[in-house]
Amino acid sequence: MQKGKIGVSSDNLFPIIKKFLYSDHDIFLREIVSNAVDATQKLKTLAARGETAVSVENAKVRVAFDADKKTITVSDNGIGMTAEEVEKYINQIAFSGANEFLEKYKNDANAIIGHFGLGFYSSFMVSHKVEVVTKSYKEGAQAVRWECDGSPEYILEEAERAEVGTDIIMYVNEESEEFLNKARLDEILNKYCKFLPIPVVFGKKTDWKDGKEVETDEDNQINDPSPAWTKKPVDLKEEDYASFYRQLYPFGEEPLFNIHLNVDYPFNLTGILYFPKLKNTIEVQKNKIQLYCNQVFVTDSVEGIVPDFLTLLHGVIDSPDIPLNVSRSYLQSDSNVKKISSHVTKKVADRLQQLFKDSREDFEKKWDDLKIFIEYGMLTEEKFEDKAKDFFLFKNTEGKYFTSSEYETLIKDSQTDKDGNLIYLYASNEEEQYTFIQEAKNKGYDVIVMDDVLSTHLINKFEQNDQKKRFVRIDSDVVDNLIAKEDQSEKLSMEEREELSPVFQAVCPANNGVNYMIDFKAMGESGQPMVITRNEFMRRMKDMSKLQGGGGMNFYGDMPESLNLVVNTDHPLVKKVLAEKDAALSAELETTNAALATLKAEQESLEKAKEGKKDEEIPAADKEKLDDVSKKITELEADKRSKLDAFGKDSKLAKQLVDLALLANGLLKGADLDKFVRRSVELIN
Predict the structure, then answer these.
(1) Is 35 marked as binding a ligand?
(2) Are 14 and 128 within one domain?
(3) Which of 13, 171, 452, 525 is buried most, with the most CB atoms less than 10 Å from its CB?
(4) Residue 520 and residue 566: Cα distance in Å, rounded?
(5) How far apart are CA 320 and CA 504, in angstroms?
(6) Is residue 31 a known part of a binding site?
(7) Do the annotations mark residue 417 as ligand-binding?
């Protein structure tokens, strides 16, 4: 029997392994099983070359546990080790300078991984003692047993093992007894070892007999050694891709289509990515893209490893150039990972381009389920945006699809404003904005649908990319003002506007957290008497604030809703309200207006007399006179507004016109809606 110390003099090695080396303690089983798979593959390679007569026909890795003995055992019939190899690969785990390296990186343990291949030592994360029984494939080799209790001391002695291969026996410590559980081990194996290239067996298959579950004699193989992504695309059919998707996501909805990655230069990369159906929200799901290294699971948290928009895809990426035993922060800065990320982005864009070219009709049918992914890519990845311009589609309210260049050609003649800007009219909700859409169509305009969560951001990007393009939501103004062809002349005098505004302001809802701004437009006798519009800039800012959920945009998100109540000065009913106002208040308002005119003239004269003088040079009497005149003007204007408010509140017609506009926009609810119905019946009678 040989006793000795592991080839690192620092006693810090095992604490580092146990506490810092891996972020998840369940990773130990992945490491040990992966090593067993590697050893088995090496023996199969030697057998294929004729360098050994050892049979590899039934090569497999077995995982077992004994709850009473508190052990977990991983066994393989792979290449095995001689005593000299145990000494080399287990005891002398580091090359020259290891102590200096450990000292240098003692505060950054993740940097150690990948330099030493410390996978085997992860067994000490859960064990107070680890035993290795191994027999080399080499002819006449003596089996050996190695034992270590987590200190640098070890025992190495001869042992008995009938077959070639290795047993790793882990004596589980008290803190890790959760792993001495069939369901827990099954969960870990399914997570990390599901697609390892050598059969992995854990227990026996079970069957129901006499109302209970019983074990059969058949091995329970937990993995698929030849998953779809390891095969050539030419050898797979669509049903194979669909079957593999169900294997990955048993309860997932059928995907739209897939991309099979198969690259061998300048790096090795295989995988299959699926496009899931995405509606109007960015769906947050676990297990989107699973990252593998030689069929060994690395992570399904790929944010920061692949571009954000690719995390919306599902599927598998596998590359031996991805370091297996490293933290995510290391992965994110790894140059190979960055190259792979860039390449996958290109392949995705190329695949979409090809689908569009090969079958535009099919592409259009899938557009509504696909568009949010493409929009997200265009917003977050410049290289993808450049390629996506060729297959991004606008969909109009008639259900027709156009590329950017096609749509520009369609609307250029009719939707260019007086300043040469190309105006893209869009609707965010076809049902709610139906009236606005119809009015635009009657005007000869075309309207596109921009109705998902990313639309506001995408519109802003389009406008930034081309200063001569503007996107205007269909309900942001009356139809005549959506695309300014010429300057509009006002038909109401300023005085008439000032007197009519309080009448309608008085009957606007005052308890729903919305500010109503009264505006006047000549929209023709056949137009609506009143229209509610939403300011394009403010609405966009509020939409972006909702999506971002904080930050600098909160300023807009916290502001109350502001709507424009546009009064059609051409409409007979509006003219009737104006006439009724004149009939009821003409005499009083004439007197008030005359008095205001006199006072404002006096105020202007007094203000003019102050020009060019310092405050101390102005006589006190003039100051008092100006204050008195200003006060009287304020009082008269308040009195005038009070009379107009009172008239408005008493005017059933004014209230009915405002409520009709609110109703058309889904803003009339509860008691206000009930009152409107009752008033409507009264007015009809």
Answers:
(1) yes
(2) yes
(3) 13
(4) 5
(5) 72
(6) yes
(7) no
